[in-house]
Write a structure and sequence with these properties.
Distance between the termini: 27 Å
Mean pLDDT: 83
Strand order of the largest sheet: 1-2
Low-confidence stretches: none
Oligomer: single chain
Largest sheet: 2 strands, antiparallel
Structural class: mainly alpha
Order of helices and strands: HHHHHHHEEHHHHH
């Protein structure tokens, strides 16, 4: 298997900078750095790119408070994500009203999850409401588990490491997808049984995409029995694309 997700991702980032789109290149780097797992060589390379290209423009100064608010409440998905990255560099307690307003009307699942992760990291101890998939949830960040602490995420990663033991490239991609699944659950947690279910579904999804038919059939025979119910492919793709 010659496919390497991180090589392709690095090439995409390089292409953005080569075409003069520094802002989007830096945004893509921040998306990667927000993930719980990255291969060390890939992480080192994108950090070096970040340092290089931040010096060329105003991105290093960050967005001002007015722009952060405008991007959060009125921006497209990329602008919302950029606003959240800048907001997480600040003391979130000073932006309580803005955060509450955003969580009730967020149009970007990725930005919403990243902000909630930051709220958990900073230990905010007030109660917040968030709208997820049309349903309102109340949560106190201090008492929520972040991705790297979720039993389901940890068990899912361990499961994928066994499945893709001989294929590091596919393992890297599987871990990336598992992290996105866990992030999509915030502020809720992913339990062990859910983690294994998603890990099985991710494994088969990746084999179906990138392995030959024989490898896919072998994987399916090993992972599944008559009682196994997988996460629908459409749901996985919705999480992946968010």
């Amino acid at each position: 298997m010659n496919f390497n997700y991180y090589d392709e991702r690095y090439a995409e980032i390089i292409a953005l900078f080569a075409n003069g789109d520094d802002k989007k290149g830096l945004l893509m780097i921040e998306e990667e750095l927000a993930m719980p797992y990255l291969p060390k060589d890939f992480e080192d390379k994108i950090i070096a790119l970040k340092k290089k290209y931040q010096k060329k423009g105003d991105d290093k100064k960050g967005l001002d408070a007015e722009t952060i608010e405008h991007y959060l409440l009125n921006g497209n998905e990329a602008e919302q994500l950029l606003a959240v990255y800048n907001l997480l560099k600040l003391n979130l307690r000073n932006y309580d009203e803005l955060i509450r307003k955003y969580l009730k009307g967020s149009k970007s699942a990725a930005s919403q999850a990243l902000l909630i992760s930051g709220m958990i990291e900073q230990g905010l101890n007030s109660e917040y409401q968030v709208l997820k998939d049309g349903m309102a949830f109340s949560f106190i960040p201090l008492y929520c588990e972040n991705v790297e602490m979720m039993d389901g995420y940890l068990q899912g990663i361990a499961y994928l490491e066994e499945v893709f033991l001989k294929d590091p490239a596919l393992l890297n991609m599987a871990k990336k997808l598992m992290a996105k699944v866990a992030f999509s659950f915030l502020p809720l947690s992913l339990d062990e049984s859910e983690g294994i279910l998603y890990a099985k579904s991710i494994a088969l999804y990746i084999y179906e995409l990138f392995a030959d038919e024989k490898s896919f059939d072998e994987c399916k025979a090993v992972l599944l029995d008559d009682s196994t119910k997988l996460v629908p492919k459409e749901e996985l793709e919705r999480i992946i694309e968010s």
